[in-house]
Design a protein that fits this description.
Elements (H helix, E strand, L loop, with lengths): L4 E2 L4 E7 L2 E7 L4 E9 L2 E9 L5 E8 L5 E5 L4 E7 L5 E6 L9 E4 L18 E5 L3 E6 L9 E8 L2 E9 L7 E5 L2 E8 L2 E7 L5 E8 L5 E6 L6 E7 L2 E7 L5 E8 L4 E4 L3 E4 L2 E8 L3 E7 L2 E7 L5 E4 L5 E3 L5 E8 L4 E8 L9 E8 L2
Antiparallel strand pairs: 1-7, 2-3, 3-32, 4-5, 5-6, 6-7, 8-9, 9-10, 11-12, 12-13, 13-14, 15-16, 16-17, 17-18, 19-20, 20-21, 21-22, 23-25, 24-25, 25-26, 26-27, 27-28, 28-29, 30-31, 31-32
């Protein structure tokens, strides 16, 4: 395959602030954020960049922690899904143009000179979770309690993509999922209990236990283990909390912060250091992210009532002179560092032409 060509579809600017470095990308014809992922100490973005006539190209952009960018164009492919191989090489699944059928191929983003175009597979719509020893793992939830969750386990041998395996996970469905120490952990709210399971890449349950749920609905797994403490993120009444589970299954509730607005959605936590995770969320009144280390809250940024985000712990404001910002994704950069990808909500009659990448590092 041919390596990617560099292009320059954006006007970019960099602003330094007390709370981070902000890179703004502007595309004259419009921009649509698709996906992003860690790329070493950088952030790798996939976006559709539009021409004035409505046509678009799939563009890859790398953003360094100092805000500088490089930009490349995909020769043939849409609907990108980014993931990492077990060796932490950046891959993408895309659908090349075909007049009669849509088949997905998975290829490295860079260093394609020794790669042959693979056979296509039926597209698998799911979220990339992480990697085990030899597999890249995706998770798909149907949100129908009668239909089991599915995982896609992409097998690598000697650094090369070998095979894709579609696997159904035994019920119950609607699991929270995390990969800890190269093993796949699942949590399901099962009546009055939480069912904690460990599975292999073929969906076989290798360990399981029931934990008293204390009538708390788990939002996300921060860390999960059968042999040491686990930390689960939840909201109870007007507080964001951690449910700490020890190796014997005993639980303890730790209150993190007063937060009266019900959380509508949370996303998979992003590990940025040992026991340290960044989790994004939204509510009826705004969106934001919080950073935890075990059962401690390090920061919580929230957009409610702000042009930008306010850290509710310190009252510091991260100013962004835009209304109705949407958080597209969050990724690790350096140790204790992360990047937040944002864009303004498009108006009724106009699309979006701007993308913002905030690089921040905890002190």
């Amino acid at each position: 395959m041919k390596n990617l060509d560099k292009v320059a579809p954006y006007t970019s600017s960099i602003a330094q602030g007390d709370l981070g470095t902000m890179t703004t990308l502007v595309a004259e014809g419009g921009i649509s954020a698709k996906d992003s992922i860690s790329f070493g100490k950088k952030t790798l973005l996939t976006n559709y960049v539009y021409e004035k006539n409505g046509t678009y190209k799939l563009i890859y952009t790398t953003v360094e922690i100092d805000g500088n960018i490089d930009t490349y164009v995909e020769d043939d492919g849409i609907l990108p899904t980014l993931f990492l191989s077990p060796d932490q090489e950046n891959y993408v699944s895309v659908i090349p143009y075909h007049p009669d059928k849509e088949l997905e191929i998975s290829i490295p983003i860079f260093h394609r000179e020794d790669v042959e175009i693979p056979k296509g597979n039926r597209p698998f719509t799911a979220n990339f979770i992480g990697t085990t020893g030899s597999y890249s793992i995706f998770h798909d939830v149907d949100f129908d309690d009668k239909k089991p969750d599915k995982i896609l386990a992409i097998e690598f041998i000697n650094g090369k993509l070998k095979k894709k395996n579609n696997v159904k996970i035994p019920l119950p469905a609607n699991n929270r999922i995390a990969i800890s120490n190269k093993t796949i952990h699942l949590l399901a709210n099962d009546g009055s209990h939480i069912l904690h399971r460990e599975i292999d890449e073929k969906g076989n349950v290798t360990r399981h236990r029931e934990i008293d749920a204390n009538d708390i609905y788990v939002l996300q797994i921060l860390s999960s283990s059968f042999d040491k403490d686990s930390y689960l993120l939840a909201q109870e009444k007007d507080k964001i909390i951690i449910e700490k589970i020890d190796a014997d299954g005993a639980s303890e509730i730790i209150e993190l912060v007063d937060f009266a607005d019900p959380l509508f959605n949370t996303w998979q936590p992003v590990k940025i250091a040992d026991d340290t995770f960044v989790t994004r969320f939204n509510s009826e009144f705004g969106n934001g992210w919080l950073t935890t280390k075990n059962d401690q809250l390090l920061e919580i940024f929230y957009s409610k009532g702000e042009q930008g985000y306010r850290n509710l712990l310190t009252n510091e404001v991260l100013p962004i002179q835009r209304d109705n910002l949407i958080i597209s994704s969050i990724n690790k950069t350096t140790e204790h560092g992360y990047a937040v990808v944002l864009y303004p909500m498009p108006g009724d009659k106009s699309g979006n032409a701007e993308l913002i990448v905030l690089n921040r590092r905890l002190q």
